[in-house]
Amino acid sequence: MRILELFCGIGGVAEAVWGQPSLGRVVQAVDIDRQAALVYAANHPLRPTIATIESAASWRTRIAGWTADTWWLSPPCQPYCARGRQAPDDARRDALLQVIRMVAARPDWLPCRIALENVPAFEQSDDCSRLLSSLDAAGYQTNQQTLCPTQWGIPNRRQRFYLTAWRSTCKPPTIVPPPRPAAIPLARYLDRDHAADLFLDPGLQQKFAPGLDIVSPHGTDRPTSCFTAGYGKSIKQAGSYLAVAGRLRRFSHREVQRLLGYRDAFAWPSRYTHRQRWKMLGNSLSIGVVRQVLASLAVENQADIRR
Q1: pLDDT attached to residue 245
Q2: Which of 9, 7, 17, 15 is nearest to 297 (CA)?
Q3: pTM over 0.90
Q4: In whole angstroms, how far apart are CA 35 and each of 32, 274, 277?
């Protein structure tokens, strides 16, 4: 598959296909975030295109959608999540709405396959209904699932809605997680050393500890909660804390990226702070689940080749 990675961020799809040639390759990545694009380029041979996806002019001059047979969309989740504004005038919806217009207006540009990832609440949104209607009118068969890495034993809750679509008479296959996955110990994802600046101030710990999600480094029964882009900025409801000798500390960016499935060799420009790295990871993808979704699309890709 030749993949156009829209809303690419630091490169979750590129990371998912790294070393997995059967899943395809990214032929173009697009985002407006220049800082995230630098991280992407530091880890993958492809340099992202900086463009406003909501602009029709960008599609005419900057986004070479016709070179790809598969589109991956990871539009901003804030308009649809519980803490978002969910307002009809939320400008963060504009880029996805432009993609929906492209599906309706440019059938000559459309790929064989499309995949989208977002928060579970997206499935109930008007934008999801618009997208499904446009895909149906354009001749796509679709499948919708909510999946979480814990279904594969990974100790991190990151429940997300996944939509897959292809132009075929067959419906995209349903992804079936293993029925009883073995829980992977959290300790496998942790650093050996703890940076001092990761520990919560004792005053903050005493004040907020009752409302925090606290996990043990040796536990296997409780996965970490979802790490959001607000981790390190918001004390509560942005991710888990690790209990270490009576103190609480934040997870390092390396630990978060391991829980998300990124390689240990995944590199960051040295000038980026913990907070910047947490934010970009919070806006990223669960790599193992993305591989499952891409594999389900690759099944149809092989069927196309045989036909």
Answers
A1: 87
A2: 17
A3: yes
A4: 9, 14, 10
Superfamily of domain 2-168+285-306: Vaccinia Virus protein VP39 (3.40.50.150)
Whether 226 sits among the annotated catalytic residues: the reply is no
In the block, tokens 């709405």 appear at 97
Contact 119, 81 (CB under 8 A): yes
According to the model, what pLDDT value does residue 307 have? 41
pLDDT of the residue at 264: 93
Q: Are 185 and 155 in contact (CB under 8 A)?
A: yes
Beta-sheet strands, E only, within 129-172: 141-147, 160-166
Q: Where in the chain is the domain with CATH 3.40.50.150?
A: 2-168+285-306
CATH number for the segment(s) 186-282: 3.90.120.10
CATH 3.90.120.10 domain position(s) in the chain? 186-282
Residue 299 host element (H or E): helix 287-306
Catalytic residue among 8, 77, 128, 148: 77
pLDDT, mean of each 10-residue run, the chain (307 residues): 96 97 95 97 96 92 86 93 65 93 84 96 94 94 96 96 89 88 93 88 91 88 93 93 93 97 95 95 97 89 47
Structure tokens at 58: 């960008």
- Please state, in angstroms and rounded to a whole number, the distance separating the CA atoms of residues 215 and 225: 9
